[in-house]
Specification:
Helices cover about 55% and strands about 5% of the residues. The chain has about 110 residues and is mainly α. The chain is flat, with a radius of gyration of 31 Å.
């Protein structure tokens, strides 16, 4: 019932696959056994090492997207000042702008 499946690139045998997986699990277990046994979750051992300094609050070190694109948005401030009021967050508005754009493109293509 269990035999080799020969393909143009090799063979497939479920017994060989099980033996390889069992060997891999055995090696993983042996590596795990060599680890530190005195590791405790929820103690000072789990905190990141920051050269002896306390870990700052997440909000104090979080870099917001607006900070990363500050130069870009500052350089195009005139464009964004006109564009941001048009941003309503309503899909129907975006669909209407899309349809208006398609109509303008069709008119331009027909005229040319």
């Amino acid at each position: 019932m269990i035999g080799d499946l020969l393909t143009g690139y090799g063979f497939w045998n479920p017994l060989v696959w099980i033996a390889v997986m069992a060997t891999g699990l055995l090696v993983a277990w042996l590596i795990w056994r060599c680890g530190e046994s005195d590791y405790d979750i929820g103690t000072e051992q789990t905190k990141p090492y920051l050269s002896g300094n306390d870990e700052p609050e997440k909000g104090a070190v979080h870099i917001r997207g607006g900070n990363m694109y500050w130069g870009f948005t500052h350089a195009l401030k005139g464009y964004y000042d006109k564009l941001i009021p048009l941003h309503s967050g309503v899909v129907n508005d975006y669909l209407a702008w899309f349809l208006i754009g398609v109509i303008v493109i069709f008119v331009v293509v027909i005229m040319v």
